[in-house]
Amino acid sequence: MPSNVMSVMPQTLAVAATQLRLMWRGRRLLWLGLAFLLLAGASVATSAARLSAQAQERHAVAEEEARLWDSQGVIDPHDAAHVGRAVPAPVRPLAAFDPGLSDFVGSSVFIEAHAQNPARHRPIEGGAALSRFGGFSAAWALQVIAPLLVILAGFATMSGEVARERLRQELGAGASAAALVGGRLIALATAAGVLVLAMIGVSLPAIFAQGAGQTEVAGLAAIGIAYLLYLLVFCALTIAASGLCASARTALVVLLGLWAVATLLVPRVAPAVAESLEPTPSAVAFRAGVTDEAEQGVDVHDPADPGTEAFKADLLARHQVSAVEDLPINFRGASYEYGEQLSTELYNRHFDRLYATYQRQEALQRAFAILSPTIALQPWSRAVAGTDFGAHLGYLRGVEDYRFRLVQGLNGWMKNHKPPRGERYILGDIATITRDVIYQPQDAGVAAVAATQAPNLAILLAWTIVAFGLMVVSGQRLGRLS
Questions:
Q1: Do 184 and 17 form a contact (C-beta atoms < 8 A)?
Q2: Residue 126 Cα distances to 12, 49, 134, 386, 387, angstroms
Q3: Residues 6+ apart with CB under 8 A from 137
Q4: What letter does residue 248 receive in the DSSP assignment?
Q5: Could you count the other beta carbons within 10 Å of the beta carbon of residue 292?
Q6: CB-CB contact of 392 with 101 (8 Å)
Q7: What is the spatial distance between Cα 413 and Cα 409, in angstroms, rounded to a whole number?
Q8: Number of Cα atoms under 13 Å in the Cβ half of residue 474
Q9: How far is CA 37 from the centre of its chain?
């Protein structure tokens, strides 16, 4: 077997070199490729400029929010908890390559006591002013336009009268069918690989301009590998269709149909079907559900509330005293701490149900990958770029963790500082109390993201195997020409 491979390899490389020369002479595809890179490069540059503006704006917002928070001075800590503050979302450098959902999810969360607020201020609300290339990105170009260029470059390599006659001559000269098919695949895959590498190269300056580090470079490499695999699927399918169809026109029609279904139709139908099967509650319905349950729970602001009375009785019993004034702690701070715990658990239950719905929708969409490799590629690209819902969910949960620590820090300080006898309130310096409570965005590493996206990579590999299988069948059919 190794000797057969060694004998076929020189023929395969010679065929690949010949096919690359033919592609180079076909200036039309070359100019299409250059136009493709220019448009995608313009999109990346525009996205990078917009991301820089967003980063500056959000940094200014974060600094102003911190200044306003610290400037509250000496006040009732619970009043400060209700004043709240906004926490802007981080700007992802790889969004210049694949913006994903970043324009459709909120860019800041307002945090306050007793509530978890959704993200607001979606960039898409800026309308046409967002970008002259809105909707077009380097990732979209590689997902949709690059497969079309692959098809146009390779649909006639083995079909049609001219190609068939050339194949008969090559077979008669002693070339094997495996070498002819493999050489054409190598040539087409090389052209596709150059396209991906050129796109990555065009994106690098824009990504580095956003302060990208080793994590982002590793992420871009992981994205590039996925796109190479994705285009390899289309290369193999193109060669297979060209070999199996009787004419170049038939091969082109079949491949264009496959391209339209895989890159345009299915990616739009899949989310709609998933939404219909697993509907997302409206914002009004979600808020109403939370409010209804909260109204039936404990209201720590009302001393006569049964839940508050029960908490007070338990607290008095634990400290073995008969009156609130005799407690070694501030009852008001303790009750607010208890109430915050309850309200946080309530909101977490409702949001976890909502996020579980999103996860079921994602699983339903993944089922459509049997019809489209694009469905498997998009989540991988967005996840590694940090522009999918998973990254947004990480931001939301990080903000909620910060909100809880901030509010409970204020409540804990109140609990440990009793007001003077006869006074209800204790005042404190808010900046001093919360100095050690810091929000730090947490980004999952490339390895962790890749692990969560393993099913999508497995689907891409399955598409590759199927495409290569069809190509083998076309090679066997080609062998019968001789």
A1: no
A2: 53, 15, 11, 21, 18
A3: 40, 43, 44, 47, 97, 98, 99
A4: H
A5: 9
A6: yes
A7: 6
A8: 29
A9: 23
Q: Is the distance from CB of 283 to CB of 120 less than 8 angstroms?
A: no
Could you read off the pLDDT of 372-420 as tens digits, one per residue?
A: 999 999 999 999 999 999 999 999 999 999 999 999 999 999 999 998 8
Separation of CA 54 from chain center: 18
Cβ neighbour number for residue 172 with a 10 Å cutoff:
10
Residue 130 pLDDT greater than 70, yes or no: no
Look at 35-39, 65-69, 380-384, 401-405 and tell me which has the smallest mean pLDDT. Answer: 35-39
Question: Rounded to an integer, what distance in angstroms lies between the CA atom of residue 174 and that of residue 406?
Answer: 77
pLDDT (mean) for 93-105: 91
User: What is the H or E stretch that residue 190 is in?
Assistant: helix 177-209
Nearest to 383 by CA among 223, 196, 218, 197: 223
Say if residues 470 and 240 touch (Cβ distance below 8 Å): yes
CB 395 within 8 Å of CB 161: no
Total number of residues shown for the chain = 482
| Phi, psi torsion values for 111, nearest 5 degrees | -105, 140
Asked whether 446 and 215 are in contact (CB, 8 A), the reply is yes
Residues in contact with 315: Cβ distance below 8 Å, sequence separation at least 6, in sequence order: 327, 331, 334
Tokens of 179: 């070498």
* pTM for this model (two decimals): 0.89
Amino acid identity, position 256: L
Helix 454-479 × helix 331-367 angle, to 10°: 10
Decide: 65 and 159 in contact? Cβ < 8 Å.
no
